[in-house]
Design brief:
- The protein is mostly helical.
- The chain has one domain.
- About 70% of the residues lie in helices and about 5% in strands.
- The chain contains 9 helices and 2 strands, in the order H-E-H-H-H-H-E-H-H-H-H.
- A two-stranded antiparallel sheet has the order 1-2.
- Helix 3 packs antiparallel against helix 4 and helix 7 runs parallel beside helix 9.
- It is globular, with a radius of gyration of 16 Å.
Length: about 190
């Protein structure tokens, strides 16, 4: 199952010139692919590109809008114009994609369709609501180095579970999400 690598391939093929816009990414991945877009933007925030100031807050806003649309049952993605026009450096994007390829290939070996009831209503609302809550705190997580990347990694796991129909991965992402507040407190504020 290469669903995650295929998303990276699509993203890399859209990286032309000095920069691309969020609109270019959405057009390349498709307006109906909420999970692919969520995976892409959360991976950007997990990669070395997350060192760009404000990237965690931008990713949080995009994921918040995507999740909200999934909850209300929209069939195609809508993002505000100022988000769609935001440029992304193709050099940093391609560097991040290269950095992600090895871990993605490793993870793909373990993905398979399972526990699919977690991907249907009403069960599906629980992870969506947890991710929605997480995105509200992500802009504040930029204060604690790497905490935004941890949050984005959890969102990436959730999106990967959706893409590969792996409810086990969705469940694991929920468990990890519940650990984030304690990890941020321990690594950021204690001691």
């Amino acid at each position: 199952m290469r669903a995650l690598s295929e998303v990276l391939d699509q993203l890399e093929s859209s990286a032309q010139g000095d920069s691309i816009t969020v609109q270019d990414v959405v057009d390349k991945l498709g307006r109906k692919s909420f999970a692919s877009l969520m995976l892409t933007f959360s991976l950007i925030s997990t990669s070395p590109a997350s060192a760009i100031p404000g990237i965690t807050a931008v990713v949080a806003m995009i994921v918040f809008i995507l999740v909200l649309q999934m909850i209300i049952g929209r069939k195609s993605v809508w993002l505000p114009g100022f988000v769609m026009r935001r440029p992304l450096s193709t050099k940093k994007l391609c560097k991040g994609i290269g950095w992600l390829r090895k871990p993605i290939r490793f993870v793909e070996r373990f993905l398979r369709p399972r526990l699919q009831f977690l991907l249907h209503r009403p069960w599906f609302f629980l992870p969506l609501l947890l991710i929605l809550g997480l995105t509200l705190f992500m802009p504040f997580m930029e204060i604690v180095p790497t905490s935004g990347s941890m949050a984005s990694a959890v969102i990436a796991l959730f999106a990967a579970g959706l893409l590969t129909r792996d409810g086990g991965l969705v469940f694991a992402s929920m468990l990890l999400l519940l650990c984030i507040p304690a990890a941020v407190w321990y690594f950021g504020f204690s001691g």
